[in-house]
Amino acid sequence: MLAVQDASLSRILKSMMLFMFSISLLFLLTPLSWTQQHDMPGMKMDVPAAVEEPAQAAQRLADKQESEFNHHLAGLFVICAGIFILAESHLARRWPLVRFAWPMCFLAAGLFVLVFSDTEIWPFGPQTPWYAITHNAEDLQHKIFSVILLALGYVEFQRARGRLKSPWAACFFPVVGAAGAILLLFHAHSGNMQAPNAMETMARIQNQHRLFAGAGLGVALANGLAGLTKTPQKWHRIFRQAWPGLLIILGVLLTRYTE
Fold first, then answer.
1. pTM across the whole model
2. Contact present, 183 and 144 (Cβ < 8 Å)
3. Where are the beta strands (DSSP E) in 16-175?
4. What share of the chain has pLDDT > 90, as a percent?
5. Host domain of residue 245
6. Which of 4, 110, 236, 249 is least surrounded, with the fewest CB atoms within 10 Å of its CB?
């Protein structure tokens, strides 16, 4: 029975790895400067930026600081998760509960993004959650990312408890993690396109999200390969160390996010 489950898991992960490799190749072959060479729909590069009112400038600055803080805090949670994973084998003998630490980091990050990522939404702002996710693509994607983080944290928490042992549970992190990374390639970022240096700012944001996506795909790929029991022992050890290492790199990139 175990052999059948392992063969099924191997087939699922191999298909997923082929798909992820194709997406990663597309990502690597797409220049990071693409957004600097193309106009945004409906925008003309030679149109001078409108003069901002003081209130508009203040609001733009507040939105910028809020967005950067959200990315930085999420990055700290991700860094902590990676460190806990790398240290787990050394600490688990003395503190068995440490195996729950990294899933809790994902749950905390997901909860934070769900509640605090968009303060124009109730209870901080006047918009209802339904109105926000149906009228603002950025808000919708933020909530999708929060659900992905919460789902990853919950499944891995239950696996750490020994409650989930089926092949789909082992596939959940690499498959859902890869989906979240790919979604980052299409992340929508709203903003005042008439603001000073708006096009440069948008290009910088998109380039950074491409880096997030690349690191996230690496995490998912290495995690999936580490979960295959047929992986040669040497490579198995490498992948087990590589995916939390890439997770830390992703966290560092998030903490350095700037608009």
1. 0.79
2. yes
3. none
4. 54
5. 2-28+64-189+198-255
6. 4
